[in-house]
Amino acid sequence: MRELKFRFWxxxxxxxxxxxxxxxxxxxxxxxxxxxxxxxxxxxxxxxxGDIVTGHTEYEMSNDDxxxxxxxxxxxxxxxxxxxxxxxxxxRWRCDVVNIEIKGNIYENPELIK
Length: 114
Known about the structure:
Blueprint: E1 6-10, E2 15-17, E3 31-40, E4 46-48, E5 51-59, E6 66-67, E7 73-74, E8 76-78, E9 83-85, E10 95-105
Antiparallel strand pairs: 1-2, 1-3, 3-4, 5-6, 5-7, 5-10, 8-9
């Protein structure tokens, strides 16, 4: 079972918070929660929603492979598949995450997204 953890972007302080916030630390309007995907990048860093990553995903069927070495992708939750893009499993194929590296996140490094 994967660990459930979150990080929070603090809109007022404009900083990322990796600790569990106390109820008096913030108001709901002041934070943006991002969930841990359960995956780690090639440097053993936790991958969260909102991270900007490069790498490659390989599927059992090669025509479904995704290569994003040169163009970073934002990790996001996809409700239809109940999984995190770009690591989604389609209903028939297994997905292997290969050589994924976190380059930044959408709040601290928006310039990484073209």
